[in-house]
Amino acid sequence: MTVGLEIYNAAGVRTFSTNDRVGRVLGSTYTGTADGAISHGELANGQGFCTCLPLGSIPGPGDYWLAFPSVVLDGTTIRWVFPTWSSNTAARRVNCLLVFGVW
């Protein structure tokens, strides 16, 4: 006997089944204030995702330039790079929490 979960809308159309693909979080990491990268083998199937949540304090006086990392998911590797601006090399790099997983 098959056991599972299926959800139907009011019209009787199935909207969800346990056979559907559901996202699964694999892990998380902090970027700190330096460029970096991490790898996770389960991201290799090309169906990975990554979210970036900025952490840190509200800018104080004179702290108007903030640098958030650019995050790239490439195969099994997640890389982040902080931008540099020639007009303001002292921009404060913002530590972020990266949460990653697969669909």
TrEMBL record:
Protein name (database record): Uncharacterized protein
